[in-house]
Amino acid sequence: MSKVKFNFLIALTVILALSSFNNDNASRLQNGSIQQHYDLPNPLKAEVIGIQDGDTIELKFLFAGKKAGQRMGKPIRIRLLHVNCPERGRPYYKVAKQYTSQQCFRKTVQIRHAGNFDRYGRLLGEVVLPNGRILNKELVKAGLAVHFKKYSKSQEYSNLEIQAKKQKLGIWSQSPTFFGQL
User: Fold this and answer.
1) CA proximity to 53, closest of 105, 93, 19, 90
2) Measured in whole angstroms, how far is the alpha carbon of residue 130 from the centre of its chain?
3) Domain count, the chain
4) Do residues 51 and 16 both lie within one domain?
5) So which residues are the signal peptide here (predicted)?
6) Beta-sheet strands, E only, within 91-164
7) Domain range spanning residue 13?
8) The model's pTM
């Protein structure tokens, strides 16, 4: 066999192997664990595969629509509406993150949303847990999040915060100087 024919057969084998590999990955994306979507159903229903912090989760759902921005081709992140949990390094940060994890990690949840995204490419929404409760509200009730008045005018969340304050739950058991740190 000539050297040219041998090199041609090697190149052809490599091309076919790479083509097969790419087709396998594409079919895995479409038929396997995570399928890419260009529309956002409402409610969006998917498994929680990551907990970023107390008020941000990641779903087993790839969104490739125009609003995906920097999150294009990555699992969609949800920023919980109406609430704000303590930031990393602050008291109750770990407690809020753990609570969120216990409530929804590896569970299928529904996200009620209006199709709005924040500047980080996170979908803004309320997380409906498998038992029908709303994670956002449960965090405020437990004193692990505040009503995020800068972005929410909800009277219901305001009332939940007032009740948690009265009961001195979670963050509300801290000194008044703590609240400027959220």
Assistant:
1) 93
2) 16
3) 2
4) no
5) 1-26
6) 108-117, 123-128, 146-147
7) 1-32
8) 0.78
